[in-house]
Amino acid sequence: MAAHTSQSVAKAADGEAGTTGPVRGRSRRTDSDSTGGGRGGLKRALATHWYAWTMIAPVVLVLGVIIGWPLVRGIYLSLTDANERNVARTIGVRHIEATYEFVGLDNYVAVLGDPVFLQRLVWTVVWTVACVSITFAIGLGLANILNRQFRGRAAYRMALILPWAVPGFVSVFAWRFLFNRDNGILNKILDGGGISAIPWLDDPTWAKFAVIAVNVWLGVPFMMVALLGGLQSIPGELYEAAEMDGASPWQRFRHITLPGLRAVSMTVILLSTIWTFNMFPVIFLLTRGGPGDSTEILVTQAFREAFVASPRDFAGSATWGVLILALLMIFALVYRRSLRKQGEVW
């Protein structure tokens, strides 16, 4: 009995020794991984996925040059007092060094304290909300119509996509001709009906209606195509089952179409909001911010500071640009959080 017990103890001791050996070995490997595992993991990732890194490297480089450097430069200029009088410039054979200085957050305090900023911000928000809302409503209606089977549907689709195919500046100049007070087609039609000419681009209120109308006309094709794709992804069996259960067209639209389009709708609304918020061509080419400054939005004000004001205020323009970026980032974060609360992944 004693011999058997001693043998058991010896085996147990040998087992413990055998188990401690590998444990110690694993601990040593863990220590080595903790010291050089980061570099080793990066090397393994580069060796394993070298083709992926090779494919994305040009894109990262181009984005860094086109977006990254101007962004960093703009943020830096917004913290200085740079204008056309104190930046580096060359006159003939003479090169004049830059003399602008670092002023910290003074430009941001000045812009945020200026009543002009609040005026531009309010109109920019109104312009964005109006354009996106109307564009989404019209695009959704047209998408529902084109999602049905009828003769000539392909021709109608091509006709409705046409505004998207025409270059933006061409469309804006065409609308500028239509809105002309004396020779415009719209006022000619009104005059034929006995209605006096409307100062589309000469009156502040009518000018706001005009720029919203043109931007909606340009934005409807994109919204319609995106929502049409979303509609075609909804199974037709859902509509057939709802119709058999006696659901009305409005009930089918409310309980099947809208939920089925939620993911697509959230994406296109976000994109349309960002594009409209920064829609420089429509405002600049149609009204140039006028009459007066009634249709100036934030981005056209930034352009005015850099290229129209005298002296040209590069620091002020950069400040407006950084504030626009900050507002859009805040909107995107709030928008993303609201989607996550609704169960949407974005």
List keywords for this structure.
2 strands, disordered N terminus, mainly alpha, 346 residues, 14 helices, two-stranded antiparallel ribbon, single chain, globular, 75% helix
Outline the structure in words.
The protein has a two-stranded antiparallel sheet. With 346 residues, it is mostly helical. It contains 14 helices and two strands. The chain has helices spanning 2-48, 50-77, 106-113, 115-146, 153-165, 168-178, 185-192, 204-232, 236-244, 249-260, 262-277, 280-286, 298-307, 314-341; strands at 89-91, 94-96.
Short synopsis of the structure:
The protein is mainly alpha-helical and 346 residues long.
SSE layout:
Layout: H1 2-48, H2 50-77, E1 89-91, E2 94-96, H3 106-113, H4 115-146, H5 153-165, H6 168-178, H7 185-192, H8 204-232, H9 236-244, H10 249-260, H11 262-277, H12 280-286, H13 298-307, H14 314-341
Antiparallel strand pairs: 1-2
Helix pairs in contact: 2-14, 4-8, 4-11, 5-8, 6-12, 8-11, 11-14, 13-14
Class of secondary structure makeup: mainly alpha
The unreliable regions are 1-36
Q: Percent of residues in helical segments?
A: over 70%
Q: What is the overall silhouette?
A: globular
The total strand number stands at 2
Rg calc: 32 Å
Summarize the helix and strand pattern as letters. Answer: HHEEHHHHHHHHHHHH
Main-sheet strand order equals 1-2
Main sheet characteristics: 2 strands, antiparallel
Strand content: under 5%
Helices, by number, come to 14
Mean pLDDT: 84
CA-CA gap between termini: 71 Å
